[in-house]
TrEMBL record:
Residues 1-51 form the RSE1/DDB1/CPSF1 second beta-propeller domain. InterPro entries: Beta-prop_RSE1/DDB1/CPSF1_2nd, RSE1/DDB1/CFT1, RSE1/DDB1/CPSF1_C, WD40/YVTN_repeat-like_dom_sf. One of its GO terms (molecular function) is nucleic acid binding. It holds the Pfam family Beta-prop_RSE1_2nd. It comes from Vannella robusta. One of its GO terms (cellular component) is nucleus. This is Uncharacterized protein. Residues 120-175 form the RSE1/DDB1/CPSF1 C-terminal domain.
Length: 180
């Protein structure tokens, strides 16, 4: 599998494949000589990488999401993306997912507004290499998924857990929640 660069550019989420030496680990990096870059390791080699012309498209794949993407994390054991999506002023759709032929038609239909402080949300497991959704878990009505992370517990070192931060009855202005 190849490495991917995920970033926000002009208020849009971008996922770009990298044609580069495979990396074992990567992290953000900033210094006087390199304002925006990342550092990677591969074997016993450390590389500092900058990406020129971030806005240019090298390879682009568009995927249809149900709600607005709020955050994502890479599940390292599988290299799948875990994406949390949430939509304000919406309710969870209890209907089964539409067929492929119905999907395009439904893209033009807007949802009825549910009201301030109402949320619809889901957690999506996505295989970026195959560009397909593996699973979608709908959250209860009025629960907004806003953050996601992975965690390995000391007692269970061979398992990677997904942690999702949610809020119930999130009101944006003034900021308040029922719980979360």
């Amino acid at each position: 599998s190849r490495a991917w660069l995920a970033y926000n550019y002009q208020n849009r989420f971008q996922l770009t494949p990298l044609s580069y030496v495979p990396a074992e680990c990567a992290s953000g990096f900033s210094s006087e000589q390199c304002a925006e870059g990342f550092v990677t390791t591969a074997g016993n080699t450390l590389r500092i990488v900058t990406v020129e012309r971030l806005g240019e498209v090298f390879n682009s794949q568009e995927i249809q999401l149900k709600y607005t993407p709020r955050n994502f994390v890479v599940h390292k054991p599988t290299n799948h993306l875990v994406i949390v999506e949430a939509e304000h002023n919406a309710t969870t759709d209890k209907k089964p997912p539409p067929s492929e032929s119905e999907t395009e038609e439904l893209n033009f239909i807007s949802r009825a507004k549910a009201g301030t402080g109402q949320w619809a949300s889901c957690i999506r497991l996505f295989d970026a290499a195959q560009c397909k959704t593996l699973d979608v878990i709908e959250l209860e009505d009025n629960e907004a998924a806003m953050s996601v992370s992975t965690c390995i517990f000391h007692e269970r070192p061979n398992e990677t857990f997904i942690i999702v931060g949610t809020a119930r009855s999130l009101q944006l202005t003034p900021r308040k929640v029922e719980c979360g």
